[in-house]
């Protein structure tokens, strides 16, 4: 697959996602919201805890393979492969950016 030309904050997120919760949280604004698996996580502390919990529970890699702009959001289609039920799975990551950081992230099937 060809490498996507993702906006910098989104590229930084996917890079940080392979490291730790602290690195992921730094990609977001102070009041950012993440919506994932039916739960909402608001602010750096909650986002760091969300990522840290996911990393303890699952080991996975993510490979973005398509992107589009729609209604002020960047939608990135990503294949996740790992030790979770249903692996591999293609998910959509819906990003809303604000001042060079992620203000909102929602993951959907």
Structure report:
The chain has helices at residues 8-16, 21-25, 43-57, and strands at 28-36, 39-42, 60-70, 73-82, 89-98, 101-108. The chain is α+β, with helices and mostly antiparallel strands and 109 residues long. It has a 6-stranded mixed β-sheet with strand order 2-1-6-5-4-3, with helices on one face. The protein is globular and about 35 Å long. The chain starts with 7 loop residues before the first helix and ends with a strand. The mean pLDDT is 94.
Summarize the structure.
This protein has one domain: Nuclear Transport Factor 2, Chain: A (Roll).
Write down the overall geometry.
globular
Q: So, CATH architecture?
A: Roll
Report the structural category.
alpha+beta
What is the H-and-E element order? Answer: HHEEHEEEE
Query: What is the CATH class designation?
Result: Alpha Beta
In whole angstroms, the N-to-C terminal distance is: 21 Å
The CATH topology label is: Nuclear Transport Factor 2, Chain: A
For the record, the count of structural domains works out to 1
Question: What key phrases describe this protein's structure?
Answer:
single chain, 109 residues, alpha+beta, Nuclear Transport Factor 2, Chain: A, 48% strand
């Amino acid at each position: 697959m060809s490498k996507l030309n993702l906006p910098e904050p989104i590229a930084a997120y996917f890079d940080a996602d392979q490291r730790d919760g602290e690195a992921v949280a730094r990609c977001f604004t102070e009041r950012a919201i993440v919506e994932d698996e039916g739960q909402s996580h608001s602010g750096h502390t909650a986002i760091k805890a969300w990522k840290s919990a996911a990393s303890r529970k699952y080991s996975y890699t993510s490979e973005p393979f398509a992107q589009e702009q729609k209604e002020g959001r960047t939608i990135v289609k990503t294949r996740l492969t790992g030790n979770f039920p249903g692996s591999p799975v293609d998910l959509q990551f819906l990003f809303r950016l604000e001042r060079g950081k992620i203000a909102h992230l929602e993951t959907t099937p």
